[in-house]
TrEMBL record:
This is PRD domain-containing protein. The keyword Repeat applies. SMART domains: CAT_RBD. NCBIfam families: antiterm_GlcT. Belongs to the transcriptional antiterminator BglG family. GlcT subfamily. It comes from the Bacteria. Residues 69-174, 175-281 form the PRD domain.
Length: 281
């Protein structure tokens, strides 16, 4: 028997504080991992392969604090859906998802019990930007609703999708929400300026939103784009409304991201806007 993980304290049937071979504390999470365990017992290596181990001290302390306020059944269900997320993406997840998703779902359940419904203004953009994460989030909400016999609103799918995207990309949920909010603002500007009632399922809408997402990521990382002076001149003359709107969008992005936007971005935005105005009007 490998004795590298020794039980220090059982927090509940699914969460155990252990010490490793270096006497460092870890939180080990897994279905039934704490059942019947006593202080000093050992966790088998084959069990650890099926578990999550929180190594970061801050994450550990936040998670311990959360557990004191949460029903064990809720903890078990959330851990089950995190396993489901990892399986669906066949990818390691940032361990912060245990704290972030547990905290979010617990708060969502509390709001539900109080009869409060927080609307998600970025639901459509989230579904467009992160389609696989959104699909998995639908599965997660379905499992939670069925297991806990509750009915979390549709908006929670979008919030969970952002947590999933954060966990698989190691980006903060705050940054992801900020970018989603920016895209929402930009799309409202487009709709108003072009006097469009946009079909959010249309291919041109999807292309524009995804382009904006990639543009924001490029701008945030400071990527340089090759100038398109000749094409820019043609587009400015042929499609002045879309070209001017593209520059308005660029100025909003510059202010929101506090980063310079390459002039070439106006070319690509103008082409997307022209397609949208021509085929979705």
């Amino acid at each position: 028997m490998n004795k590298s993980l020794q039980v220090k304290k059982v927090l509940n049937n699914n969460v155990v504080i252990v010490t490793d071979a270096s006497s460092l504390e870890r939180i080990v999470i897994g279905k039934g991992i704490g059942f019947g365990k006593k202080q000093g017992a050992h966790i088998l290596p084959e069990q650890v392969d099926k578990l999550f181990v929180l190594k970061d001290e801050n994450e550990q302390e936040q998670y311990k604090t959360l557990l004191t306020h949460i029903d064990e059944k809720v903890v078990e269900v959330i851990n089950d859906v995190i396993v489901h997320i990892r399986t669906r993406f066949d990818n390691d997840l940032n361990e912060h998802i245990h704290v972030a998703l547990t905290d979010h779902i617990t708060f969502a359940i509390k709001r539900l019990e109080q009869g409060l419904d927080i609307k998600n203004p970025f639901l459509t953009e989230t579904q467009t930007l992160y389609p696989k994460e959104y699909t998995v989030a639908e599965e997660v909400i379905e499992v939670i609703n069925k297991s806990l016999r509750i009915h979390l609103p549709e908006g929670e799918i979008g919030f969970v999708a952002l947590h999933i995207h954060s966990a698989i990309t190691n980006k903060s949920v705050t940054a992801i929400k900020k970018h989603s909010q920016l895209i929402n603002t930009l799309m409202q500007m487009v709709q108003h300026a072009l006097d469009l009632k946009i079909d959010t399922k249309s291919i041109n809408y999807l292309r524009l939103v995804r382009h904006l997402r990639h543009a924001i990521e490029r701008i945030s990382m400071g990527d340089i784009m090759e100038e398109q002076e000749k094409l820019a001149k043609v587009l400015k003359e042929e499609y002045p409304i879309c070209y001017n709107l593209a520059w308005k969008l660029i100025k909003v992005m510059q202010n929101a991201l506090n980063k310079p936007v390459p002039h070439a971005e106006a070319v690509y935005l103008t082409m997307h806007l022209q397609r949208l105005s021509r085929y979705d009007n």
